[in-house]
Amino acid sequence: MINQLIEVALQCPYCWEEITLLVDGSIELQEYIEDCEVCCRPIDFVVEVDEQGQAKVAARLQHE
Length: 64
Hints:
Blueprint: E1 5-11, E2 18-24, E3 29-35, E4 42-49, E5 55-61
Antiparallel strand pairs: 1-2, 3-4, 4-5
């Protein structure tokens, strides 16, 4: 899975528009904040990549 980018489509928890993420498939567990490409609000992402290279992404509102 080295250097494998996985494209994941999901909905922004703020504006509900579909957004696309590129996930690094070489890292099993990732947590980071990224702005929505539509409404520009910060989203907390938790990404888990399984042994088959499938990414499970949770997108949450960022709490201030």
